[in-house]
Amino acid sequence: MLRVFVILILLGCQFWQNDARGFKPSEYVDHTYDSFFELERVQEQINLAEFDQELLEAALYFETCRVRDEHGLRMPSYSSALNKTSSRYAQLMVDFDFFSHFNPYKTSRSSLRERIADSKLDLDPVAENLAMTHVYNLELESAYHPMLTDSSTMSGPMLYVDLSTKQEVRLLTYKQLAQRTLAQWMASPRHRMIILNRIYTHLGCGVSLEVDNIGSATIPMIKSVQHFGAELPSGRLYTSY
Questions:
Q1: How confident is the model at residue 105 (pLDDT cuts 50, 70, 90)?
Q2: Handedness of CA 131, 137, 139, 144 (dihedral sign)
Q3: Which residues contact 167 (CB under 8 A, 6 or more apart)?
Q4: In 3D, which of 174, 185, 155 has the Cα closest to residue 62?
Q5: 198-231, pLDDT tens digit by residue?
Q6: Do 222 and 177 touch, CB atoms closer than 8 A?
Q7: What end-to-end distance do the CA atoms of the chain give, in Å?
Q8: Residue 79 has pLDDT above 60, yes or no
């Protein structure tokens, strides 16, 4: 009897651990951006072997809300449908190795408006932001040098050295990666204009990890997608590029 009780406890612990990963759509309404970024798992260094896609997507959403609030704008409602369309497009860009607002591989969903149509939401206008960001604490334009942790056997995980500082670069946390991605967008006038456009009422963010393999000489990247949409009052017209 005692053995069965111990096994049940262990199984319960395993279920709790599994439940701690990811970020469910129902959890978005339970958090403000402040409470979300206080979560321990958001502040953990990213583990490439156990990359938490849903958690980073949530981090991008809440960081976008924080930035809009900082500029006196209403925070967009979370859209699970736009979460799905943006996540699907991020994965397509990784699978087919491209980075563009135009999808050359799926002609039926080549444009943004066609991709948003999958959401089954009546949204107009719509907008899309794309970004590529290193998972390591390294700027996109920085030069780096890959090094095997065990050069004698030519095996082991890969380390990356920033050639400008001669220091090993570390993996970012989920919070840091979301902040860096938003900083990239905000530094671009076109992307910034979309993020700070008060017309948009709904947002979903998607990401995909691009890595040849764990230990590759090519530094891993995240391809991120924001899908914005607006529900306008009847009779009101608005044109977006």
A1: confident
A2: negative
A3: 161
A4: 174
A5: 999 999 999 999 987 555 567 889 999 999 999 8
A6: yes
A7: 67
A8: yes
Secondary structure, 3-state, 178-230: HHHHHHHHHCCHHHHHHHCCCCCCEEEEEEEEECCCCCCCCCCEEEEEEEEEC
| Neighbouring residues of 203: CB distance < 8 A, sequence distance ≥ 6 | 61, 64, 76, 77, 78, 79, 82, 226, 227, 228, 229
The backbone region for 120, taken as left when phi is positive above 0, alpha when psi lies in -120 to 50, beta otherwise, is left
DSSP assignment of 26-41: GGGGG--HHHHHTSGG
CA distance 134 to 73: 29
DSSP state of 142: -
Q: What are the phi and psi torsion angles at 18 (to 5°)?
A: -65, -35
| Residue 109 DSSP class | G
- The answer to whether the beta carbons of residues 57 and 203 sit under 8 Å apart is no
Alpha-carbon gap, residue 32 to 37, rounded angstroms: 9
Q: Which two tokens stand for residue 208?
A: 């995909």
Q: Which helix (H) or strand (E) holds 55?
A: helix 53-70
Residue 125 has what DSSP assignment?
A: S
Q: What is the tens place of the pLDDT at every residue in 155-188?
A: 456 777 877 777 888 999 999 999 999 999 999 9
Query: Six-digit token pair at 17?
Result: 């651990």
Tokens of 144: 């780096």
